[in-house]
Write a structure and sequence with these properties.
The protein has 424 residues and is of the alpha+beta class. It folds into three domains: 119 residues, Orthogonal Bundle (Butyryl-Coa Dehydrogenase, subunit A, domain 1); 57 residues, Butyryl-CoA Dehydrogenase, subunit A, domain 2, CATH 2.40.110.10; 157 residues, Butyryl-CoA Dehydrogenase, subunit A, domain 3, CATH 1.20.140.10. It contains 15 helices and seven strands. The strands form two sheets. The protein has a four-stranded mixed beta sheet with strand order 1-4-5-7, with helices on one face. Strands 2-3-6 form a three-stranded antiparallel beta sheet. A hairpin with a 2-residue loop joins strand 4 and strand 5. It is a peripheral membrane protein.
Length: 424
Amino acid sequence: MMSLRAGRHVLSAFKPVNVSSLRRFLHTSKPTSTFAKDLFLGRCNKEKVFPYPDPLNEEQRETLNMLVEPVEKYFVEKVDSAHIDKTAKIPEEVMGGLKELGLFGLLIPEEYGGLGLLNTNYARVCEAFSDASIAVTLMAHQSIGLKGILLLGTEEQKQKYLPRLASGEHMAAFCLTEPSSGSDAASIQTKATLSEDGKHFLLNGSKIWISNGGWADVMTVFARTTHTNDKGTNEILRMYIALAGMQHAGKHLQEVLKYLKNPFGNVEFMTDFLKKRALYALGLKGNLQGIANVSHPQLADSVKKLEENIADFGRISENLLSKFGKNIIEEQFLLKRMADVAINLYGMTAVISRATRSINRGSPSASHEALLVDTICKEKYHANNTLLKEVKSGTKSNGDEQLKKIAEEIFKSGGTVTPHALTV
């Protein structure tokens, strides 16, 4: 009894509590201005993607059009691909035209004599000069050849090398691949040893498959060197600028070139403790990852899938046209599958373009968009492979012939096919 009264006394000492105030309400995050992140939160802001956002503003679009049109015209009127392939040499007058159009400095900032294009603009211009006999020369020059200087070079190095590279006076090459390690940067064996006087480096190793190697004036060479700090001495990977014209390349490169009737870019470059005149490492102490990040590695797998699908689509389209000619219009079942693939390819291109735009601009939703791109491209990639396999293997194995015959019989009998045969 006493305990009950004591309990009541204790309870009476507390003030009444409003139970509703103890509820925990679920609050969603604040609305964002990004389409991709909102999708993860269960919201679909259609106005963010319809109509599809142009990655370029009006000024950038105008500049791009002014550049693309003359480039396309030049390649139609002046470039003879068959002749270049036959002679294994790009004529001097053609190279001169490329220099006048500014195609050697597309990615180099304007302050160094280039055009300073964004990656999106650069990709569009590359599409305009995608002639196989010239595209590799131009793209190897700036996409990888001079990229190390552009990203990791000192201001002094940029002022010294980039203007001549932008004008086309000098050509750049990229020396990574080795006979024993391929393009695996972690397995590179080429060594760079600092001379006793500390004024130059000695390179010892071998590089192969060097695009533009036959005529490059500047080479970005990857080699291992020792680095000592308070934690000890370690071997690290660095990039070196080597002025590698014929007069500086060393006797080994000259020996290799003797065996090539017309050195057309991909050559072997060997050094054997040769002192390289004008060889610099100062400022280029980054690693391969620094260059790899520029190409958006998080999208690389999706782009590769898109490329594979496009290649298969083009090959199978040619086979269908060769087989059926104008009568292809009667093969509606095959055309339906090819149309589905084309739609998927367009969708893959659109999402990759959107994600690339976000990455270029440093958008906070870039990581979300990259994840969406990976998911969508994987799904469409496998769907395209299935559709193209069905087209390639013929129609009998998937029942199209039987459906076609049924539809023809119904039509002859005066009936109709519902639903439409293409949706079966």
